[in-house]
């Protein structure tokens, strides 16, 4: 198993568990399991950041579902979508209210569930759902709705996460403002900064699932 030490931002993942669970051991166990799932988000080096692959997927999603917005962001030198770094790294703990962030986590992890999830925690590099052809309908029903859709359409890449489409849905809500007002990346960051605590989690999830369907219909299967 890959080991990673403390990285700034992990406190955002830990704090809900400390608040919700009175027993310290239970809180630690939940945090440790959450970090097995999220550790790649925090793995950074001098040449890469932990969520870089997800940012690349986000770029492809926006390019596919909203080419005009993607081109505008590229023109602002924001084609790598680094302004969305925090949203993905700590799963919207800063952008949504505390209760909405918890709602999002529960929805994301339920919809991305697959029967091999605990095995994949132990074998992160080897875990794969690439054997879709061997899955029957009974087995597919064990998967969460989001992951099942990815499997059925051949997009089971681990970077094709619901969180990516949630970020895309946030960008889409600010589409007109970004196109009209953003003259540089600082403007994009400022516009997105204004949403903090003012987003509706249920609406964001609904829009994210719509974007997933739109993307899967338009994107070419790898």
UniProtKB/TrEMBL annotation:
One Pfam family name is RabGAP-TBC
Q: Which residues form the Rab-GAP TBC domain?
A: 1-112
Q: Which GO terms describe its molecular function?
A: GTPase activator activity
Q: What is this protein identified as?
A: Rab GTPase-activating protein 22
Q: Which taxonomic lineage does the organism of this UniProt entry have? A: Eukaryota, Viridiplantae, Streptophyta, Embryophyta, Tracheophyta
